[in-house]
Write a structure and sequence with these properties.
- Strands 1, 2, 3, 4, 5, 6, 7, 8, 9 and 10 form a 10-stranded mixed beta sheet that branches.
- Helix 6 links the parallel strand 5 (about 155-160) and strand 6.
- With about 325 residues, the protein is an alpha/beta fold.
- It starts with a helix and ends in a 5-residue tail after the last helix.
- It is built from 11 helices and 10 strands.
- The protein is globular, with a radius of gyration of 22 Å.
- It folds into 2 domains: about 35-130 and about 255-320, D-Maltodextrin-Binding Protein, domain 2 (3-Layer(aba) Sandwich); about 130-235, Periplasmic binding protein-like II (D-Maltodextrin-Binding Protein, domain 2, 3-Layer(aba) Sandwich), CATH 3.40.190.10.
Length: about 325
Amino acid sequence: MLTKRALLSAIVAFGCAMPAVNAASAQSYPTRPITIVIPFPAGGNNDVVARFLADRLSASFRQPIVIENRPGGAGGTVGTAAVASAAPDGHTLLLSSPGPLVVAPAIYKRLGYDPAKNFVPIATTFSIPQMLVVNPELPVKSIQEFVAYAKANPGKINFASPGYGTQPHLLGEMFRLMAGINIVHIPYKGPALAVTDLLAGQVQMYFETIGVLLPHIQAGKLRALAMADDVRHPQLAEVPTTAENGFPKLQATYWSGILAPAGTPTSIVEKLNAAINDNLKSPELQASLAKLGATAKIGSPQDFAAFMAAERQKWSEVANAANIKAE
């Protein structure tokens, strides 16, 4: 009986001590430089936010913030897996877009990590709506006209993507399934090559973010059919949404968020979330994001977790329906 009482007392004492330990972790954090891993080559949209946050957080935390671009694998999975296996102390973080977190799990059987189990969400950073464009030689000016043309010319329209299993690929497949049309997917190695062939008429249709497409739309070299969103974009206010065109579920945003390895103390996650959200409100950063067609996406770790869960379910359903799988 005495042994049981002693054990119970120890358990209670341990439970009472944990909040204090957790609070102490946040108070002393960080104790050394923080590395933010971006699992893609340098020069992407994530870098704009990463560099800004690195400067601001370094000043706030009085520790250097190192940005490490670590590309490789299927859609950024190499860098993502490296962070999943890092120490859960808040000194190694992941800054990622949808690919490794919600798209790759729907397509690849072996990732080397489980996005839902091996990471704790900290904060979202920004989002950019995808949009549907066509080569202007295609005789259509709306989604309805596109669907009618595609049905009259089955298999004759090619749609580009920046790679097999990317978000634009799955969005194109979602459109194909919803509209009941026969269009052919042509994957490229990145958006630059896809846009080049779209401008040349080698492919006729493409879903991509507004920041990539806007200069070509303004120059009259591409025709915008719809924003894949439920609200119009201020930079292309004349372009209707997919919802307005009768496809309310045909929506997707390119987003970015910061995560830590699972097991990172809650107090550290909350400290990082508060600091990141505070810096996302900066007019300077918001102006930089606006040039990309992006907006800051501010929320709690719980908001981010719920958002990713919904995104994983959405793209898994599309991948299964379109039979998109890879080893």
